[in-house]
Design a protein that fits this description.
The chain has about 575 residues and is mainly alpha-helical. It folds into three domains: about 20-235, Clc chloride channel, CATH 1.10.3080.10; about 245-440, Clc chloride channel (Orthogonal Bundle), CATH 1.10.3080.10; about 455-575, CBS-domain (Roll), CATH 3.10.580.10. Helices cover about 60% and strands about 5% of the residues. The chain contains 24 helices and six strands. The protein has a three-stranded mixed sheet. A three-stranded mixed sheet has the order 4-5-6. Helix 13 (about 305-315) packs parallel to helix 15 (about 345-365). It is elongated.
């Protein structure tokens, strides 16, 4: 069965005749043509899965909701403000009960955990949970965004393509980044923000070799998604600019306020995680009931909220409603995410920021003398500041703000607000990225170590010695023939049941007619060696050497054959190079 799957993968691979060479070339960190191809494949895959995901909930909502759009939940009969989220919580609980606890993990935090601890390999069942669970949540009016599920789905389908074709793990990790960028770009029609989000939040690095395939994936996904689904923006913001430079000091103060709101959101999410051990059906019902209770009084809290963002920017909400909606969205989203609902939080974060910013804009007109900027201007600043502080991703927030608003006049005040909100949330209120805090609550440490990043960039075949020959103990003729070809490493099959393979580095002096075997002629073998897959990264190989105290690793191909030797000292030299 395994051989049949491998043969099928080889036949379907566009690089069929050079599949082995293609995989081995990807182990190097300068395989630009190959990784560009992977970026293109990831972009196509991400676009297709996002189109399928959006169609699953947007087409039914456009037919069911009175307003004819997927966002007009507030046009429903008021009784549904409460009951629809409750029904959704029940359906989600029943759906999640079909899966084990580890299979229920979804969203951006799950992608980050798989990158940090599993080389980007994404389980299929979690992908299924996210695809249908995210759709159920949005269909039933939960306070949810589509971007978290989109990131999970885009990276998962890219990762699974890489795993199906037995690509090296460093390439699978790169495809996860490409899938993330493609998903964000396609979901919001913001290719630049997709690239920066992938590099700043998921991959935690900026490099020329990393940027190239990620950009290709974002562009490919955006073009394909727009052709299949349409090129509309999430919302069309009016052209608003700052009216008076005297507003800058107040804008900086507002940055601190927005940072505090972001810290409250993150703290609420992690606090609610204390109930993660409770039965999943109860948790989903509580989340749905809480959202429904808030929606009965503030129906705009339901759904993704892109229509409410535009109304906040256009100044169509009064101060009281802005404050109520910002707080309702904050607690409804934070409690739902904390209780494990498979939803996204970036969209709700933008709505929180837009409402809080617009409310602060209304206050400015009372605080400042003279002309002040429109409340919509402050709403846009609030969006960027809230996204930056919650995600601890200032550049992604700034680029996203520019692409969503198409307003270059927002750059200078946007940078100031974003930085102040970011610093106040992390320094004064001690809250890291909400995704990092969630992982820490789960007992996982997510850090970007430069040496770890470097070792994850390359596969083991990039440093391994290819001059290895594998023989049985009595295969003296075969060994002598390999010796003529200049081999330096020798692996011999042992007759000892406890020791199947013996490794030597020195050449053996033996006659072709000798009565003794290769092992007896060779003398003392290398004592400490192990086996490592050719798909592994240098980081995986180094961890294996440290854990088992191996001096050498035998590198095995996808079919189990030994193709090379990697000394541990070669990995150590790589970490010490300039």
């Amino acid at each position: 069965m395994v051989n049949l799957k491998q043969k099928l993968a080889e036949r379907l691979n566009p690089m069929h005749f050079g599949a082995s060479h293609f995989r081995r070339r990807l182990a190097y960190d300068d395989a630009l043509p190959q990784i560009c191809f992977l970026g293109f494949v990831s972009g196509v895959a991400a676009a297709l899965v996002i189109v399928a995901f959006r169609s699953l909930f947007e087409i039914p909502l456009e037919h069911w909701l009175p307003g004819g759009t997927a966002e007009s939940f507030e046009n429903l009969d008021p009784i549904w403000y409460f009951f629809l989220p409750v029904i959704g919580g029940l359906l989600l609980g029943l759906w999640l009960m079909l899966f084990a606890p580890d299979e229920r993990k979804t969203g951006v935090a799950h992608v980050m955990a798989r990158m940090a601890y599993h080389q980007g390999k994404m389980p299929f069942k979690n992908t299924i949970v996210q695809f249908f669970g995210g759709a159920i949540a949005i269909l039933t009016g939960q306070s949810a965004g589509r971007e978290g599920p989109a990131v999970h789905l885009g990276s998962a389908v890219s990762s699974q393509i890489g795993s199906f074709f037995h690509l090296p793990h460093n390439s699978v990790r790169l495809m996860v980044g490409c899938g993330t960028a493609g998903a964000i770009a396609a979901s919001f029609n913001t290719p630049m923000a997709g690239v920066i989000f992938a590099m700043e939040v998921v991959m935690l690095e900026y490099s020329i070799m990393g940027f190239t395939p990620v950009i290709i994936a974002a562009v490919t996904a955006t073009l394909l998604h727009n052709n299949l689904y349409g090129a509309e923006m999430a919302f069309m913001a009016p052209d608003i600019s700052m009216a008076n430079m005297n507003e800058m000091p107040l804008i900086l103060v507002y940055g601190v306020v927005l940072g505090a709101i972001a810290a409250l959101f993150t703290k609420t999410v992690t606090s609610i995680q204390n109930f993660a051990a409770q039965p999943v059906l109860a948790r989903m019902l509580i989340a749905g009931t809480f959202t429904g209770s808030l929606a009965y009084f503030v129906p705009q809290v339901m759904g993704m909220g892109t229509d409410s963002i535009l109304m906040a920017i256009e100044g169509q909400y009064a101060l009281g409603l802005l404050v109520a909606l910002a707080l309702a969205k904050l607690f409804a989203t934070a409690i739902s995410v904390g209780l494990g609902m498979p939803i996204g939080l970036i969209g709700p974060t933008l709505l929180m920021g837009a409402c809080a910013g617009s409310a602060l804009g209304h206050i400015s007109s009372y605080v400042l003398d003279g002309p002040t900027s429109d409340a919509g201007f402050y709403a846009m600043l609030g969006m960027g500041a809230m996204m930056s502080a919650v995600l601890q991703a200032p550049l992604a927030a700034l680029i996203g703000l520019m692409e969503l608003t198409h307003n270059p006049g927002i750059i200078l005040p946007g940078m100031a607000t974003i930085v102040i909100a970011n610093v106040s949330c992390s320094y004064f209120f001690k809250q890291d990225s909400v995704f990092v805090e969630v992982l820490r609550k789960q007992g996982l440490d997510y850090q970007a170590n430069p040496i770890t990043q470097a070792l994850n960039h390359q596969g083991v075949t990039s440093l391994m010695h290819y001059d290895v020959s594998h023989h049985h103990d009595d295969d003296i003729t075969g060994y002598l023939s390999a010796l003529d070809r200049g081999i330096n490493w020798l692996v011999i099959n042992s007759d000892d049941e406890e020791v199947e393979h013996v490794l030597y580095q020195s050449q053996i002096t033996i006659d072709e007619d000798s009565a003794i075997g290769l092992i007896e002629a060779a003398g003392s073998p290398i004592p400490a060696f192990g086996f490592c897959s050719s798909r592994a990264t240098l980081k995986e190989a180094w961890d294996l050497c440290k854990k088992r105290e191996y001096e050498q690793l035998l590198i095995t191909d996808v079919d189990g054959s030994i193709i090379g030797v990697l000394p541990a000292e070669e990995i150590l030299k790589y970490t010490q190079k300039d």
